[in-house]
Amino acid sequence: MKLLFSLILIITIAINSCKSINIDSNRIDYSKIENSLKQQQCFTSSGELPTGYQSEFVQFSFNGNFPGSGGNGIQQLSFFEKGFIDMDFVGEQLFVDYFFDDGQTQSLGKLWGFTSNSTQYLAVNINGSQYCIEQPLQFTVPTFKGLTYIGDYEIGSVQCDVFEGQSVTGNFTKQIAFVDKSDCSFISSNGENINSPLGYTLMNLYKFQPSADPSYFQLPSTCFNQPPTTLLKNSQIKKLSQHLPKIIENYPF
Known about the structure:
Layout: H1 2-16, E1 23-24, E2 27-28, E3 52-67, E4 74-88, E5 93-101, E6 106-114, E7 119-126, E8 129-136, E9 148-155, E10 158-165, E11 173-180, E12 186-193, E13 200-209, H2 229-232, H3 235-241
């Protein structure tokens, strides 16, 4: 309950602090985003699109839309997540070091995903022992898709291009990304449910670098010494292997 109250408070403060976000019938009015500079600075040609990125991130969700279990349908989730992500759009591979907490379950781990062999690896710590679980790839490692420029805005004093992105949940979510005009680095992403119930997701990125670091795609030695099948039936390992980081289901770009 404390976590849920904190999520509501944080997202409410974040929404109300932006003058572009005026509440009308409990929904965000994106038409208030200003186009004061009237000039898109970032990603104006295909040659300017990023090949990847690495960044720390913090993500909050209150009733935000996410894919349902097994990728079927839509579910609303409230949680806090933080970590580091290294994304390679060209090689279609990613690495996430994450901590997740929804008030009932806490997960701490590392995830690697590779489109080349349709495999993911999840490293977890249980009672002081490290385990690496190999599984079929359960998500799509994205290639960079173009964003639709919708205007300009400021976060603090930073001039931003504002883009509408393509949500993993399709037309059920409106996904907005803020990009620093000076160096085209991603700063923040907001998601709003189009369906009912109302829900919002907010993610901020820190120490953004506009290219992937290949060193993070090297698997640790524990991933080459897989645990026996009997161990994978352990309820704690099974539970952790089912809680993947939510950032892979909420790509802002």
